[in-house]
Amino acid sequence: MLALLVLAILVGGSLQRVTGMGFGLVAGPFIVLLVGPLEGVLLVNVVGATMALLIVGRLLRGVDWRRYAWLAGASVSVSVPAALLLRGASPAALEIGIGAVVIGAMTLALVTSRLHGERRRFRERDPRPLVVTGVASGFGSVAAGIGGPPLAVYAVLERWDTKSFAATAQPFFMTNALAAMAAKVIFAGATFPAFAVWEWVVIGLALVASIGLGELLAPRISREATRRVLVVLAYVGGAATLGRGLAQLL
Prior knowledge:
The chain is mainly α and 250 residues long. It has one domain. Helices cover 80% and strands 0% of the residues. It has helices spanning 2-19, 23-35, 37-59, 65-86, 91-113, 128-144, 148-158, 162-187, 197-217, 223-249.
């Protein structure tokens, strides 16, 4: 299991470094499948926050702090209500929900990205789209460790500059994951996976290695190729988690 967990972190982390997002979408479903719905989502939050912290130092100058403030504020405000709402959910229901969220969110992002002719910029400095995006991302992070798709949809509709998006996404994902983690531990009684110390060390090394791998791949892989790999892996992981949840109900 640890070997598969390390592989999921390496793939998801390298894609996060290359594209600016994708760890929760790609690695999240596989981590949940391997570790379980409650501990798995918490582990996704921990690793995701650490990864964003390591990446943001290289992109700090490009952060749009106004957008970050609206997104993070909305996300944090919904973390506790989401944790309370999900507190009594069964493991099977959580796995079904997580799988469905991944598949639905990726489909929404794909459909939105194809609406080239319908895209329009939101009114200048209108905070409402940012608030809606932050709320959706915060709820997704608590429920499934996945906060990226709403942000991706907003970026497509707003035609957000890719460099600014990738930079701003990192502190937002870090804040989002930490808020979700705290809410679930305090209000939903979630616990961390019972790994041995050496297993946590291996996970940490895999995290650092994934960023290094992303640094090597970034100049060599086209954006379109990276996007296709991310989409395929996200669908496979989401379908696997959804299938496991459904199997527990049979």
